[in-house]
Structure to design on (1222 residues):
């Protein structure tokens, strides 16, 4: 049985499998299907300072091997999250990667600070900073497309939380130069990166001849975008090998639905793997992917998950 | 949250029923947990499918003794068409039972007996016959109103008389029963039966009309909605709609988890229109002008 | 029967359906399956100055509802194209949109100039400038990610060909700000835009633990990316309505496999539609999409294809 | 380019054949046009499939009189597995016949008769029995050599003796015939039969070995390759491989259109290795150092 331990930025997890933010709510719902403490970590729905209703509906459209969503970051706000959701997650023994967002760097810091006051603060394994959310200062453009704005957010969060808590910046693939954004985030103190958030897409309702989603455009996710996720992870990892970026762990996410898919993202350079949209197809998907990955590693004779991380890079094979 | 199972069900039979298809599935765990008003969510297209999301179907009947769950399916687009093409021996991956069931009536009438009217539009009638049996078994007087665009789009007219004390049928084109809508006959049925509770499942416009008719008659409407759902299990937040909570405040709640059955008077019907649902300005966390 | 005429940049085509560059070779092969002169236009495989072998293999991988390719612009070179392929296309009555590329703006112009010397020059309906090809001057980065480099290419081509021949710039979706690239191309004299080329992706061979493609990364295409194409067309068209861009025709391409899909791209703002990867699934796909689109327009009571172009934009509905 | 059709074929039968599945399909137009060595390309996964690309299969037999085309399929991954699961009455969308057929031998031996050896590896033998019948019908002496990893991976041993003058069988594990590879027995067969032409279909390494053995024996090798194909009809340029043309120059040619049958001596075997195929430096339009 291969050693599944995942090490990322000082964090040691029993295995590399995680839920993806916004695809597993805050745990209770999936816990009916499998014990969520089995996962390396549980990633929560992005939380902001105040409660949010999210957008009107339709909020989703199915697309070929994927889906489009525009939820609009619906959530209970950080107070309810810190006082109710996080303690529940702690009660079942989950290691929690808390996803946070804000409309300004200060709101990000405020959310992070408030989180630390939760009675369940010890359940927090780290923070995932969702910079794919609208930046109030730039007429609603998301932070993630601007290296400078992204860095400001990361710096604000890094300052707000103790150094032992790793901070991961979650990047958008919708940029000309991903490595520059990654560099900005790592430079501002991010301990690692999560790649990728959804890519911007749109579906038109051809019966009504109007955008299908209430929010017009939405985020495309699912197996359809897996090649984009693999490419993004590969590019950033290659830049680390080439020393254009400091070496830091990458959490891979995008279209993973099987153990083979998880292995693919790991081989591209991911030290941990999140399962998002596949959970809508199979509520046990994160657990199933974990089991399949373990079997695959054994079948191929790997002693440890760590051995496959970035294994498809020639630099890793012939250092 | 109630008990839920994930199991691969075998198709035992699939028979045409007017414009629909009636499937009996072997799904013993789901059958054991299910109550009327709940639904199942099925994957579609097989192992190499390009369709990722589950399709939801009301449970038409569940028999824990033999381990079967029944559904009635209208071929709407590719996913439901695939379901209607399953044949005995084929497998369907199911999650269920999902959502909250219909509550039972708790306000007996002057005769000491509870009384209910069940209203189904199109295949929306599917869950009502089982509900009728459960209600009658506990002594409730049950009347059923079925409506559809045309006779072939009615489901269960034959089943209704066996499980209800009275049955009314309407069709838009008059091809069966009274020409018109269920809302045309409902007020009279409500007055005559003195029902305290109305149960309805069908298109959104019908549910609103039923809610209005129930209010006019002093009855409580329990409506089972059909919002587009990506996961069915409460994790994606796509199926939300504005519903007034016990504290009087409107929230965008998940219809797969807090529904599909809601008290009609709590649904913010004013937010729906033209195939869209807005977030009411007074909803908790609604976007502020100049805000998100 | 709806009027299918497509008008773009002075060009009038009998219908809006086209092949997509690189997905139909240069006509002979598909002509075995349907009469390619039925299409509004035939778009040729991108041709460069010299013959090119393209890349080694594997050159493709199937992905969920899509595929990845790295052909490497294999082709016979402009001489053979102008003397053999174009005359053949002319002989069957095809209206040809010739796709050209080069490693420098000068090579683009050279290819365009040589084209004009073809005995079949009258078959040319227009030029499609494929700027998603490596720019020799910037270490192999493609022109399309740089507005300035893109504009240089377009200007060079525009200067080389007579004004009656429309020039379309084919853009890549892999940029932070598509509208800026579109503006640069239109500003440099492009008569219209083709949206979108493939998006960069990657697949890892998890048996061999190395990139699946010989070329490492490749272009993702097919229905999986249709929501990205629709979004790109919508964004650029919206910018035209908002007068942030001059109004110009858009040729839509990306994941079209049915009449409904064609209608979707048209409603987003496309005045003509190309069918690419779907042709690998069904060699008659461009003709089938045309027939389905015609039926759909009739079924919905549209008098003309022109009525559905950009029809999902509120500005079009309530001008 | 020869005649080609696109038709929806009905499965007439599907029978197991060792590790493979043998399908008989009603595809009258394809059957009418086909010749040995050509292939068909099938869509996989049905109307809602997430798999877009066609899968290619050598034509095992084609009978224009009854309108059937036969294929032999190994379940490799999802697409081929789907094909092996088709049952009589199911439909398969086919394009074919594709590619160039095997050429006939043109150099008679001292006895005035042409002589050929047909070599099949695994399911690669599928197209050879039809070829054998065609060659024998025109007077060619035919010997067949079949090889595979194990007995269950041999195809057509029973068919071979009916259509060939002699048959040799090898398996890697010795579970049938001689233990070893076809290339172990081939030199002897070639010498004995004095064949002018060798026809081979199977894995790349085998095709190279056959080419070498043929050269050593002064025979011409005709090899049918299996490069990964996206379209099968010549429009995508994914199936290319380096082949030396009549002018002595190497080009990356489409194996779906110019192949799948090539003269073995013209294939640039040196470019293949480790699952990759490089572009030889001397190929027409090969990347220059510092160039593209
Ligand atoms: C609680 C509930 C109970 C239902 N009960 C029944 C029933 O008993 N019988 C029946 O025939 N149908 C029922 N429906 C509707 C059925 O789920 C949809 O018709 C079906 O999902 C459409 O799938 P499709 O592939 O045919 O259509 P598509 O339009 O291709 O579906 C695309 C996507 O949209 C979603 N979607 C589209 N329409 C609906 C809808 N009306 N409701 C939910 N999701 C939708 C699908 O789940 C899918 O993700 C029910 C829906 C819900 C929510
Ligand atoms: C000319 C020709 C004749 C063939 N004849 C036969 C036959 O008679 N019987 C048989 O069982 N198989 C045959 N094959 C191989 C068969 O096409 C592949 O096994 C099949 O395409 C794999 O599909 P999959 O979905 O199982 O695998 P996947 O690996 O999922 O396929 C993914 C993609 O790669 C392509 N691909 C993968 N492997 C091959 C391959 N070896 N050849 C071509 N494309 C490939 C597929 O077409 C598909 O696009 C032939 C291939 C060619 C080119
Ligand atoms: C319905 C839905 C909601 C999402 N919500 C969030 C979110 O709140 N925060 C976030 O960082 N990512 C969110 N995502 C993005 C996912 O976490 C993930 O990055 C993306 O979906 C790609 O992974 P997948 O293909 O496995 O889904 C959401 C995705 C979906 C489909
Ligand atoms: C195999 C293949 C080869 C391609 N070659 C070219 C090319 O030479 N020039 C070009 O501009 N686009 C090329 N493309 C991109 C297509 O023209 C098209 O823009 C893209 O594939 C998206 O459309 P689709 O989803 O319909 O395929 C190629 C695409 C594929 C799949
Ligand atoms: S359908 Fe996913 S939360 Fe309701
Ligand atoms: S498989 Fe497409 S060109 Fe040969």
């Amino acid at each position: 049985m291969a050693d599944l331990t995942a090490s990322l930025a000082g964090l040691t997890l029993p295995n590399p499998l995680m839920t993806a933010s916004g695809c597993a709510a805050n745990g209770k719902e999936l816990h009916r299907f499998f014990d969520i403490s089995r996962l390396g970590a549980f990633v929560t729905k992005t939380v902001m300072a105040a409660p949010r209703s999210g957008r009107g509906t339709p909020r989703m459209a199915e697309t070929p091997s994927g889906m489009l969503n525009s939820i609009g970051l619906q959530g209970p706000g950080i107070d309810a999250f810190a006082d109710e959701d996080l303690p529940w997650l702690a009660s079942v023994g989950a290691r929690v990667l808390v996803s946070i967002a804000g409309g300004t760097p200060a709101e990000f810091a405020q959310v992070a600070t408030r989180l630390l006051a939760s009675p369940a603060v010890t359940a927090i394994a780290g923070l995932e900073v969702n910079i794919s959310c609208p930046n109030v200062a730039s007429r609603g453009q998301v932070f993630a497309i601007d290296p400078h704005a992204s860095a400001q957010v990361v710096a604000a969060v890094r300052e707000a939380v103790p150094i032992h808590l790793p901070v991961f910046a979650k990047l958008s693939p919708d940029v000309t130069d991903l490595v520059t954004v990654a560099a900005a985030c790592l430079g501002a103190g991010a301990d690692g990166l999560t790649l990728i958030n959804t890519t911007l897409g749109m579906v038109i309702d051809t019966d009504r001849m109007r955008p299908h989603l209430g929010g017009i455009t939405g985020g495309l996710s699912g197996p359809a975008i897996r090649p984009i996720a693999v490419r993004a992870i590969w590019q950033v990892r290659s830049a680390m090998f080439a020393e254009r970026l400091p070496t830091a762990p990458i959490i891979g996410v995008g279209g993973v639905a099987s153990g083979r898919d998880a292995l693919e993202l790991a081989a591209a350079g991911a030290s941990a793997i999140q399962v998002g949209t596949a959970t809508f197809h199979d509520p046990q998907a994160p657990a199933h992917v974990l089991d399949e990955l373990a079997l695959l590693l054994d079948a191929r004779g790997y002693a440890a998950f760590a051995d496959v991380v970035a294994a498809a890079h020639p630099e890793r094979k012939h250092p | 949250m109630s008990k839920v199972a994930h199991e691969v069900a075998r198709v035992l039979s699939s028979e045409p029923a007017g414009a629909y298809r009636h499937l009996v599935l072997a799904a013993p765990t789901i059958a054991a947990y299910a109550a009327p008003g709940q639904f199942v969510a099925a994957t579609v297209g097989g192992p190499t499918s390009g369709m990722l999301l589950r399709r939801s179907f009301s449970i038409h009947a569940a028999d824990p003794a033999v381990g079967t769950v029944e559904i009635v399916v209208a071929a709407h687009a590719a996913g439901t068409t695939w379901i209607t093409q399953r044949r005995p021996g084929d497998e369907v991956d199911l999650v269920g039972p999902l959502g909250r069931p219909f509550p039972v009536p708790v306000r007996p009438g002057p005769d000491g007996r509870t009384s209910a009217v069940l209203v189904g539009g199109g295949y929306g009638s599917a869950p009502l016959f089982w509900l009728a049996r459960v209600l009658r078994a506990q002594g409730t007087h049950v009347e059923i109103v079925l409506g559809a665009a045309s006779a072939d789009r009615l489901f269960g007219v034959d089943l209704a008389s066996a499980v209800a004390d009275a049955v009314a049928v309407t069709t838009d084109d008059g091809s069966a029963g009274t020409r018109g809508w269920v809302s045309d006959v409902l007020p009279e049925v409500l007055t005559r039966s003195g029902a305290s509770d109305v149960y309805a499942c069908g298109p959104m416009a019908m549910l609103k009309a039923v809610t209005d008719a129930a209010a006019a008659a002093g009855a409580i409407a329990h409506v089972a909605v059909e919002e587009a759902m990506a996961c069915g299990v409460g994790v994606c937040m796509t199926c939300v709609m504005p519903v007034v909570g016990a504290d009087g405040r409107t929230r965008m709640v998940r219809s797969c988890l807090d529904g599909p059955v809601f008290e009609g008077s709590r649904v913010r019907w004013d937010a729906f229109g033209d195939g869209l649902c807005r977030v009411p300005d007074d909803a908790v966390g609604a976007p502020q002008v100049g805000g998100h």
Summary: The CA atoms of residues 230 and 265 of chain C lie 6 Å apart. The first helix of chain C runs from residue 28 to 31.
